[in-house]
Amino acid sequence: MKTLVAFDLDGTLAESKQAIDDEMATLLARLSGVAKVCVISGGDWPQFETQVVGRLPGDATLENFFIMPTTGTKLYRYEDGAWKPIFAEIFTDEERTHILAALDKAVAAAGLHDDKIWGEQIEDRGSQITFSGLGQEAPLDAKKAWDPDRSKRETMQKAAQKELPDLSVNIGGSTSIDITRKGVDKAYGIAKLTQYSGIAPSDMIFMGDATYPGGNDFPVPDKAKVDTIAVATIAETKRAIEAIVLCLG
User: Fold this and answer.
1) CA pair distance 55, 19, nearest whole angstrom
2) N or C: which end of the chain has fewer CB within 10 A?
3) 10-residue mean pLDDT series, the chain (249 residues)
4) Residues 207/124/196/240 CA torsion (nearest 10 deg)
5) What is the CATH number of domain 4-89+184-248?
6) What are the residue ranges spanned by the domains of the chain?
7) CA–CA separation, 103 vs 161, rounded Å?
8) What CA–CA distance (Å, rounded) separates 125 from 128?
9) CB–CB of 116/139 below 8 Å?
10) Tens digit of each residue's pLDDT (9 = 90 or more) over 58-96
């Protein structure tokens, strides 16, 4: 029997940068009563706080949650009545300056200076720097329509990787590219989770909407060797959680 259930966030628990709905919040609370729960994604802590943590109902067992922003380079736990950062692998000033300059060149090379931008295209998340093609505040409909075949993100990924050969450049959400230190992906995050929690990958199960080769969830089954449920919709995630709760409860 599995003792920890891990999730991607956007496209798995909620729409991109949207809060989980009431049903999902209730299901995660029920799951936390029978298992440990991890949410790992590319967003930073404020995004997790808005999308997930702040939506959990009063009966959730908060001590059973592992919240892992920026692809697992940060960890937050609920201790002594508050959410607290446990670790954060932050870029140095030199690394940050190097990445931001390289991203400006890559955006120009990829031709992604779109006319309509909502907010900043480049966001410094401390341990990860993220490029968002339409800006950080783009509406959901625009994001869904921008790059359905991944071609724009793949072009940007190649341009950025050329400028940043010493770092990892991965496709993130529906419009984003994530820059991290070399080797950082969700398998890296799972390894950090194992190190901190003492729970082996064989005792975990993961749900994500991008578990196919090239998807940002693919390293979990491929490298971390965690049993994985591929979900195509948020509704599928809900039904899978219900089944797990029934089995474990």
Assistant:
1) 7
2) N
3) 95 94 98 98 94 98 97 96 95 94 89 81 92 91 92 92 93 89 94 97 97 93 98 98 94
4) -10
5) 3.40.50.1000
6) 4-89+184-248, 93-181
7) 9
8) 5
9) no
10) 999 999 999 999 999 999 999 999 999 999 999 999 999
